[in-house]
Write a structure and sequence with these properties.
The protein is an alpha/beta fold and 334 residues long. Helices cover 46% and strands 17% of the residues.
Length: 334
């Protein structure tokens, strides 16, 4: 007999809550990873590949179980579980800026130019600066993966520049800087858990949203949106994250191997993301959505006040921006 969605969620949560003690084979460390991605999303594909590699390499010693599609709650709920030790890993993205304000760096529009630039930012900024700040807040970053380049969809009109966003009720993820950005661009932004987005768009509670193409297609947002505007306004990395204290309770050899695999996964994540961007855009071009290229320079100019506020209100904010930009020209170490 098929279980109801409520029972599925409850069952998954029960497994995660019991992960610290393990309920599988004797001597096997049970690990859990939760994420908000829908089936077929980049999160889903990469998390499952990560689990496959962990389970193959650590067979008989550890087993990793993946709970996607917000089965264990939204990003905020899963971050709380990490600190409590009832979930081992999650893959937060934008919400990290609500936990540690310096992560708002990745909310700055058009900061990350491409994935090679992101690799250099990772070395210049993430590991020496952001990861230690996350640890102070109770989180340990194991690896940097991807959520993706974000684009705007809506049901009212094509978005070519900021003027076109005027009056549009736009769902954003929880994160103060994304809200500030779209306020500066003239929209009416509202933070909302991703699990609620489809219904909000379907019922007209929200006019639009902004997400990478993989989230748009895997969650079938194209079924309730008329326009896709390729703004690429923000590149969102995703961080394979644990609770700093609870993670340390696992055997050191298990932790070190899982962390190594998580970092090794980045090449797979980036290759998969680039391929999906091309394939999914081609797929969306076959739907009834109207697709247009946005004018990035107009967005960049209108969003400059967000940079200025980040630089003056976040500790070391201007330095973070300068180092991230320098990484784009290969000058990060200067």
């Amino acid at each position: 007999m098929a279980r109801t969605p409520v029972l599925v969620v409850a069952s998954a949560a029960a497994v995660a809550l019991g992960c610290a003690g393990g309920s599988g084979e004797p001597g096997v460390v049970e690990l859990s990873l939760g994420h908000v991605g829908s089936p077929g999303s980049l999160y889903d594909v990469t998390a499952n590949e990560f689990a496959r590699r962990v389970n193959e390499r650590l067979a008989g010693r550890a087993e990793l179980h993946v709970y996607g599609a917000s089965q264990l709650g939204g990003d905020d709920a899963m971050l709380q579980r990490l600190r409590l030790g009832t979930l081992d890993m999650s893959i937060p993205s934008t919400i990290m800026s609500s936990m540690v304000d310096a992560f708002g760096l990745f909310e700055m529009p058009y900061l990350v130019r491409d994935r090679e630039h992101m690799k250099r930012i990772e070395e210049a900024v993430v590991w020496p600066d952001l990861a230690p700040r996350a640890e102070e807040a109770g989180y340990r970053i194991l690896a940097v993966w991807e959520n993706g380049f974000r684009h705007i969809t809506n049901s009212r009109r094509p978005i070519h520049g900021p003027d076109d966003l005027s009056g549009i009720k736009l769902r954003t993820p929880r994160g103060v800087w994304r809200v500030k950005l779209f306020q500066a661009l003239g929209a009416n932004p509202t933070p909302m858990p991703f699990s609620e987005v489809f219904v909000a768009l379907q019922t007209g509670v929200m006019d639009g949203q902004e997400n990478p193409l993989t989230q748009v297609t895997s969650s079938k947002l194209h079924e309730v949106q008329d326009y896709l505007s390729l703004t690429g306004h923000v590149y969102s990395p995703a961080f394979v994250t644990t609770g700093a204290g609870p993670w340390a309770r696992h055997p050191e050899d298990i932790r070190s191997e899982v962390e190594a695999i998580a970092r090794e996964m980045q090449a797979f994540v980036y290759e998969t993301a680039a391929r999906m961007d091309e394939e999914l855009l081609a797929e969306l071009e076959t739907t009834e959505m109207a697709i247009n290229e946005a004018e990035a320079t107009r967005f960049e100019g209108a969003s400059e006040p967000v940079y200025e506020e980040f630089a003056t209100t976040v500790e070391g904010g201007q330095s973070l921006i300068d180092r991230a930009r320098a990484a784009g020209s290969g000058e990060a170490g200067s």
